[in-house]
Amino acid sequence: MHLTGLALKRTIFANCCFAFVLFGYDQGVLSGLASTPQFLESFNHPSSDLLGTIVAIYDIGCFIGSLSMLFIGDWLGRRRSIVLGGILICIGALLQASSYNVAHMILGRIVTGVGNGINTATVPVYQAEMSSSSSRGAAVMAELAFTVFGIPLSNWVDFAFVFGGTVHGSAQWRIPLALQAIFPLGTFILIPLIPESPRWLALHGRNEQVHQVVAQLEGNDATPGCPHVREKAQLIIDGARHEAELKGSWLDLFRNDKLQNLRRIILGALPQFLQQFTGINAVVYFGPTIFSTSLGFSPRLSAIVGGCGSIAFFIGSCLPVLFIERSGRRPIMIYGLIATCLSMAALAVAAYHAQIPALQRASGYGAIACIFTYQFVYGASWAGIPWVFAPEINSLRMRIPGQAIASATEWMSNYVVVQITPTGLETLGWRFFLIWVAVMVAAVPYLYFFVPETGGATLEEVDMYFVQQEGWVIVEAKNIRQFVREHEGDASTAEVEYQETNADKDEEEFVSAAR
Predict the structure, then answer these.
(1) Could you give the CA distance from residue 305 to residue 299 in angstroms, rounded to a whole number?
(2) pTM listed for this prediction
(3) Diameter of the chain by CA atoms?
(4) The domain spanning residue 270 has which CATH number?
(5) Dihedral (C-alpha) 323, 324, 325, 326: value to the nearest 10 degrees?
(6) Which residue ranges are recorded for the region named Disordered (predicted)?
(7) Does pLDDT of 504 surpass 70?
(8) How many CB atoms lie within 10 A of CB 476?
(9) Sorting pLDDT into bands at 50, 70 and 90, what band is 336?
(10) How many domains, in total, are found in the chain?
(11) Spatial contact of 233 and 359, defined as CB atoms under 8 Å apart
(12) Which residue spans within 184-343 are E strands per DSSP?
């Protein structure tokens, strides 16, 4: 079956969504199971520290999987990397579901994490490289909404098996963990229908295939010989050739050459760090614990409230698809961080007053409102933006290594947050939430002075920007596309800017339908 145009873009989008639903499902599935009597009994009632390790070791696996793409990502290609990630996820899910001791479970968690780390380092890059500049951000954000959808899905699957009353014994936790293996099946079915990224093909000198894939993406009976197909393909090939001529090495990851790779990798990785140090996974992983221990709710009510909060998270994550291309990345990051910070500060105030017996009930409901608001505004801003920004900001030659480092930063930060949260809640109480407030306050000036706007710019224009704009402070050069146009003129811009072709119009139609 040879898909083209809009049908091909929809298939690419669906393939990436299967990978990202699993990302969210994996994030939340064990949090609702690890404290149940059936799970604890199966593993001889592990200590709280060991239980925290069982939950958090998944993030170490994701970290390993992400970093592995530094070495094998450009060798495997985008499609084969996604398949490899899916295979490892299936193996890890089956290992977890069949676990009868802690070592067995930890091995399964690590293997699943490695597979998911490979996917998170590859899928955003693949989608970005297969999209036009006019709808690239919306497409990636829509996929990230599916990531967040996986979190309430896992919450309510856990609730159904633990509190539903129809499943008993260890099956209450084994079946939800086994369900992780379902999502990669969608990827395995769709991956034969979609082509390799034309930019990866150009990087490996397969120029004839670049023309073929560009024609497929164009649709509307376009052929590799059409003038607009040849022009678009040649821009991709010239960009790959230019980077190859720079004769780069792994040292380019740690220095600023003509393309400023170090600066771009840092710009791509720091938002992933900030995404976690807003405290989101302290809430996602340990929401039921916060509700039951800090606010005095019953386990059943805590599970219900946690599931409702994840729905607010999902609803918020759907909204950026509507406005990301108009508003850009910078405003969403800056204003979203301010709103998230205020919500977390309000949660700290509510948790403080919950210590007073006479105010515990009212403060508990106030804390619920704060958490729902926090998850909603986080979903509408920081849940997806870092995953859009990192593939856009890095050069072609460093796109997979840059995304691998960004993804690894995400997972190591996630691990730290998950590991310290139980102890932080126990020892610091309401003050623990102030840690995230402090990080967010410090991050706002960084975003304003150092992070440029990538929205609307082609990936080739981003390269031109960093060749010309050498300073880290970007107050006078906030918008990449505007800066390139002002400094290169209309004629030069035409050399790097994609034409508004039928493929672009088809993709805009697709994104509008998704909205």
Answers:
(1) 10
(2) 0.74
(3) 77
(4) 1.20.1250.20
(5) 50
(6) 491-515
(7) no
(8) 8
(9) very high
(10) 1
(11) no
(12) none
Any residues with CB less than 8 A from the CB of 63 and at least 6 apart, and which? 113, 117, 408, 411, 412, 415
Q: Using CA atoms, how far apart are residues 83 and 503, in angstroms rounded to an integer?
A: 26
* Cβ–Cβ under 8 Å, residues 439 and 112: no
What pLDDT is attached to residue 59? Answer: 86
* Tokens linked to 162: 């633990």
Three-state secondary structure call for residue 479: strand
Hey, what are 448's tokens? 């304003």
- Per DSSP, the residues of 422-434 read HHHHHHHGGGHHH
Token pair for 317: 């994550």
Question: In terms of Cα–Cα distance, which of 443, 445, 138, 433 is closest to 280?
Answer: 433
**pLDDT value at residue 407:** 85
**Sign of the four-CA dihedral 340, 153, 107, 82:** negative
**pLDDT at res. 243:** 65
* CB neighbour burial string for 451-461, b if at least 16 within 10 angstroms, e if fewer: bbbbbbbbbbb
Distance CA 466, CA 393 (A): 9
Q: What residues does 34 pair with on adjacent strands? A: none
CB 195 within 8 A of CB 218: no
| Closest-CA residue to 141 (of 390, 336, 318) | 318
Residue range(s) defining the domain that contains residue 182: 5-514
